[in-house]
Amino acid sequence: MEQMPTDWERALAVVAHPDDLEYGAAGAIAAWTAAGKHVVYVLATRGEAGIDGIPPDECAPLREAEQRASAAIVGVDVVDFLDHHDGVIEEGLPLRRDLVDAIRRHRPELIVTLNHRETWGNGAWNTPDHRVLGRALLDATTSAGNRWLFPGDDEPWDGVRWTAIAGSPTPTHEIDIADTFEAAVHSLAAHAAYIRGLNASEDVDPVAYAREFLTRVCVAEEGARPKISFELLAR
């Protein structure tokens, strides 16, 4: 695969839920921030429906706090939440307007997001939130440059050069994350309540869980350097 481009300064990472970026993309984000690039996170929801044993009104602030802590580990200090509803993100103009506003506010050259295809490429069905958010985001990257669409406080922004899709079944580019693999592990492990919720029947160690998962995703074979792949769409 080709190497991810490096001739940019600002990126906007947009996903549906807390933890979406940490299942791989955060390793690349850590490498970029270490190189002096500016990355901002925007999340459509607060992940309030993500833990079966915790009611949404208690879960939302918990998962928000975990996401902010997780982002800080990989050098991201701006995390915005759009307050759409977890599990039932609605396709339509309100969502696209919120995404356009975020793009105009942060003015990225690179957008990072998660797979929006129907499957993950292994037969596993993708979730409605991922599919809806991803499609709306791709549309918003074009709409953000048109001053007659969704007028607001910020000037139009037509400077998005690429969209990088993590978890795509058809990756085209990759980045070596050997130097930031441990940061990626601890960034995922920061979602401790969520990880324990996923594994409620087990006494799971979030760091061990994160290291095992990311090794499986990022290391092609024993002894290989860990890498993260993206499908890169150019505008």
Radius of gyration from CA coordinates:
17 Å
- CATH homology group: LmbE-like
Strand residue percentage: 15-25%
Helix content: 25-40%
CATH class: Alpha Beta
- What structural category do the secondary elements indicate? alpha/beta
Please name the CATH topology: Rossmann fold
The side-by-side strand order for the widest beta sheet comes to 1-7-8-6-5-2-3-4
Number of helices: 7
InterPro entries: GlcNAc_PI_deacetylase-related, LmbE-like_dom_sf
Protein name: PIG-L deacetylase family protein
Organism: Tenggerimyces flavus
Pfam family, one: PIG-L
Walk me through this protein's architecture.
This protein is an alpha/beta fold and 235 residues long. It has a single domain (2-234), classed as LmbE-like (Rossmann fold). 37% of the residues lie in helices and 17% in strands. The protein has 7 helices and 8 strands. The protein has helices spanning 25-34, 56-73, 93-106, 128-143, 181-189, 192-198, 206-218, and strands at 2-3, 10-15, 38-43, 79-81, 110-114, 162-166, 173-176, 227-234. An 8-stranded mixed β-sheet has the order 1-7-8-6-5-2-3-4, with helices on both faces. Helix 2 (56-73) links the parallel strand 3 (38-43) and strand 4 (79-81). Helix 1 (25-34) crosses helix 5 and helix 2 runs antiparallel to helix 5. The longest helix is centred in the first third of the chain and has 18 residues, at 56-73. The chain starts with a strand and ends with a strand. This is PIG-L deacetylase family protein. InterPro entries: GlcNAc_PI_deacetylase-related (IPR003737), LmbE-like_dom_sf (IPR024078). Its EC number is 3.5.1.-. GO terms for molecular function: hydrolase activity. Keywords: Hydrolase, Zinc.
